[in-house]
């Protein structure tokens, strides 16, 4: 019998995944898998568990939010385990799972997809050759929005809650001088924030990078330029529909497989980046694509063919 490792975070989102465990295990067993569940109890235990886990699992499934998926991904990559990854969204934003075509709360659909479809090799990002990400590396202002919005508000308003939180923080906005280096050019620009995207969305916004594809060997860098604050709320609204991509006055858009990000203001206090919503390295740092680095289950492949 094939073996499946199910790693789940009972504290993610509205903490309801525990009620779906029997559904998950039943579907996996009917699909011919012996299921070995692991429930995270405290920070660091997922990494410890995967570090000593048997390498002969056929599938590893992570249930939780983007942070949980990132922890599982990094632990697998650091061990050199290229085991197909399934994702069951049970967090608050679930940005990457949304891109894969999974809806939060529809556990049966996720599990059936994992059991009945073939995984697709997707790109990953690596920061400073040591930290992996599956969805986004971001920095500048508002990078902590997902951590500051109340969970009940997130669940009720979705991406609109991020927009409202961003507008709330507008009085604190100031232009930050960045240097962005790609494989072909060097740009210096005043920005409010930047996002290096693998998929199309983050922070509850699902259309931030409409041209993104996780199998094309490229990332999309999107940044809000340091223009008049009067324009920023309008830019945020455009981000909800994907219309911002054509706003060259206010948006910097680059596509490449390599980025180096530097802050040119030594007095700037928010030097950290975020990686899949978790705290990342301080600037300056380098990001590069790892093409088709891990197989992942999802419903996104036909959508990507249309994008291409």
Descriptive notes:
The protein has 308 residues and is an alpha+beta fold. It folds into 2 domains: 2-117, Rossmann fold (3-Layer(aba) Sandwich), CATH 3.40.50; 133-290, Tumour Suppressor Smad4, CATH 2.60.200.40. Helices cover 28% and strands 32% of the residues. It is built from 10 helices and 15 strands. The chain has helices spanning 21-30, 45-52, 66-79, 95-100, 107-116, 145-148, 151-157, 159-168, 232-241, 301-307; strands at 2-8, 33-39, 59-64, 85-89, 120-127, 131-133, 136-140, 176-181, 186-197, 219-225, 251-256, 258-263, 272-275, 278-282, 285-296. The strands form 2 sheets. Strands 5, 6, 7, 8, 9, 10, 11, 12, 13, 14 and 15 form an 11-stranded antiparallel sheet that branches. A hairpin with a 4-residue loop joins strand 8 and strand 9 (186-197). Helix 2 runs parallel beside helix 3 (66-79), helix 7 crosses helix 8 and helix 8 packs antiparallel against helix 9 (232-241). The radius of gyration is 19 Å and the shape is elongated. Residues 156-161 have low confidence and may be disordered.
What's this model, at a glance?
The protein has helices at 21-30, 45-52, 66-79, 95-100, 107-116, 145-148, 151-157, 159-168, 232-241, 301-307, and strands at 2-8, 33-39, 59-64, 85-89, 120-127, 131-133, 136-140, 176-181, 186-197, 219-225, 251-256, 258-263, 272-275, 278-282, 285-296.
